[in-house]
Every structure is written in C-alpha cells, then in structure tokens.
Automatic annotation (TrEMBL):
InterPro entries: CDP-alcohol_PTase-I, CDP-OH_P_trans, CDP-OH_PTrfase_TM_dom, CDP_ALCOHOL_P_TRANSF_CS, Phosphatidylglycerol_P_synth. The chain crosses the membrane at residues 12-33, 96-117, 129-148, 160-182. GO terms for cellular component: membrane. Belongs to the CDP-alcohol phosphatidyltransferase class-I family. This is CDP-diacylglycerol--glycerol-3-phosphate 3-phosphatidyltransferase. It comes from Sphaerisporangium melleum. The keyword Lipid metabolism applies. The keyword Transmembrane applies. It is found in: Membrane.
Amino acid sequence: MRVRSAEDRILTVPNVLSTLRLLGVPVFLWLVLGPKADGWALVLLMLAGFSDWLDGKLARAWNQTSKLGRLLDPVADRLYILATLAGLTLREVMPWWLAALIVGRDVVLMLGVPVLRRHGFGPALPVHFLGKAATACLLYAFPLLFLASHQGWYADVARILGWAFAIWGTGLYWWAGALYVIQGRRLIGGASRA
C-alpha cells in the first residue's frame, strides 16, 4: 500500500486560488468580448495577477506545495495569458504580432512535451524564476495596455508602462523558453547516458 505524502494533497489554499483563477478565464473573456464591461474585466485581470503571486507565496510559507499545484499554477497562467491575448487582440487593444510572439513561444515548448514524455519526464519542467518573472511582467502589461486603450488622464502613463512591461515580459518569456529547452535537453541527455 502506497503512503500518501504531503505532495499528494489536493485541497490546499494555493490550489483553491489556482482553481479560482482558472474559473475566471472564461468570465474574463466574456466580460471583454460580450458586454465589454472593461472595468470588471480589468478588476478580474488584476485579481488573477495578484492570486498568481499569492498562491506561490502561501504554498511556500504554509508548506502547501503539491504536485497538483505545480500543474495548476502554470496552466492557469498560460490560460489567462492566452485569454487576455485573444480578448485584447480581438478588441484591437494589442497588435496581433505581439500575441503571435507570445503564443509562438508556448507552441515551441509544447512541441517538446512528447519528447519529454517519451524519455519518462512529466508534462512540464519545474517552473524557473525567469519564467515567473516573464509571466508577472505580462500580467502587469495586459491591464496597463487595457487602460491605455481608454480615454483619460491615465491613458498615456498606462501606455508607456504597459508597453515597457509587454516588451520586457515578451523578451523574458522567450529567454525562459530557451532555458526550458536547454533544461529539457540536459534531462534527456542525462537519461540517455544512464
């Protein structure tokens, strides 16, 4: 009989936060594309960014890291990024080429998943700090670019900051992707030698 470890936990505060973030993805898309309730969409997007930071902080502080959490957190991040890219690109808040750059990195990494699995490694490599920094930059960029698309005293400042975070985030996102490819190659190389 297998003894369950703390890593097997499902019901933890960080996992609940990640699940709530996942449930917010279709709501965000509906708010942006349906009634165009930009204020509520912006609040939801900011809450998602805050909960992304909070679930990791709580998981470490309360010793509630888990296998499910390591899967849920990056999935929630990717889905929020994809939903935000889709919504903001369809609303012409963000140019299509920026969305293509960000999605292109995820496509490149997804192509490596079958290779990793064939060599006995999980669907995702451990999240690197650089990947978290890139995601944080993008999650800051999106609400700022959203604010920049409106009229008001804040639009110019939001545009400058939003584009700065978008450029930094996209660069870091690709850099983290390159590190994941290198990490994957090292794992496969080590497994082949063993």
